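[job 4471] stage=fold_predict status=RUNNING
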Amino acid sequence: MKKDRKNIILQSLASMLEERNLSKITTASLAEKSKITEAALYRHFPSKRSIYAELFSFCDDSIFSKCNEIKKSKLSSKEKVKNAFMFFMFFIEKNKGFARLLSREALSSDEQNVSDSVNQFYERFELVLRQILKEDDSNLRTQPGISAQLIITSLEGNIGRYIRSKFKDAPSNYIENVWDLLSISVFKN
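[job 4471] inference complete, writing structure tokens
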């Protein structure tokens, strides 16, 4: 039962992050959305910061477990990077609340530790891409680090674009074209 309530709280937070007019999420509003008391919310999480941290942890685990799977596959370096890029964008499209977490838009100064985790997330994701790109660096137009940086910058920009459209302009509508342009910029063939 305790695990179920925790998941309900996390799902409620993710749902609240998806709302068009994102207002300050309070523990009272989160408890109301979760259909529990604020005291019950604190029995599951010691602070609002810990709720955000656990939600971010789920996002982080989901993306990196898929990245590790892609990294170990027998695909070419180019296909691995494409799959990681596409997975990331489709994951964000399906989990709009995570877009607000990964853009840091939903975080206040009280959640600085989560903001720091988001920064580390992008650094780790860039490192994974750089490692994959090094597998076939003779096919790159520039250094693996610069190529990985370009891809991460594109990901962050597309998350921002998705949020600005109020989640109406889904990445699946244009992301193949974005990948084609990135691919031309990163790979020789």
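[job 4471] summary: The chain has a mean pLDDT of 92.
[job 4471] exit 0
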